[in-house]
Amino acid sequence: YKAGVNYFDSAEFYGFGQADRNLGAAIKEFGCDRKDLVIAVKIFRGGAGPNSYDMSRKHIIEGTLKSLKNMGLDYCDLVFSHRQSYTINLEETCRAFNWLIKKGYAKYWCTSMWENEAITEAIKLCEELGLCPPIADQCEYNCLRREHVEKDYRRLFERFGYGTTVWSPLCGGLLSGKYNDGNIEGGARYDNPFVKSLLWDQYMG
């Protein structure tokens, strides 16, 4: 914040609420002026319970309000659908995010890692129903993973002026240079066989 950074991103999934609490504590500790901040909340998985997962109206609303409570904030600037749902009716999801905006709990809603076709459908549906449409996607984008953004999402950018934020710009640390010698320290994320199989084996194997 003191270095000029004012966009802060959290998610109910990160430590199942601990990241939200840490962010809220930092905002208070540094005496940040709320109007100068852009706070993003991501909702999809908030726990192990049957109603703490997916993009139902119940979970979207309750999950967002819980994140705000954990941060000690009245509203967030952006609320993201952290992942696309393949089980919940899209209209239910759109109406839930619209409710949060109309009630003042969020300024805008966004998607994260949604398929191009699903985003297009959501925008069109919101336009037809008079709802607030999603405005941006948080997508994985780095030197090793470019196609999804540069090919698939390009049509969204050109057609709708869709925005974006980025996650994993260093591809999980592979582009940081710390693994150039091929060694993985004990306790590092790639010391986990599952995590290693996702990226390391593809790019470093």
TrEMBL record:
Pfam families: Aldo_ket_red. InterPro entries: K_chnl_volt-dep_bsu_KCNAB-rel (IPR005399), NAD(P)_OxRdtase_dom_sf (IPR036812), NADP_OxRdtase_dom (IPR023210). Residues 1-184 form the NADP-dependent oxidoreductase domain. Keywords: NADP, Oxidoreductase. GO terms for molecular function: oxidoreductase activity. PANTHER family: HYPERKINETIC, ISOFORM M. Belongs to the shaker potassium channel beta subunit family. This is NADP-dependent oxidoreductase domain-containing protein. The lineage of its organism: Eukaryota, Sar, Alveolata, Ciliophora, Intramacronucleata.
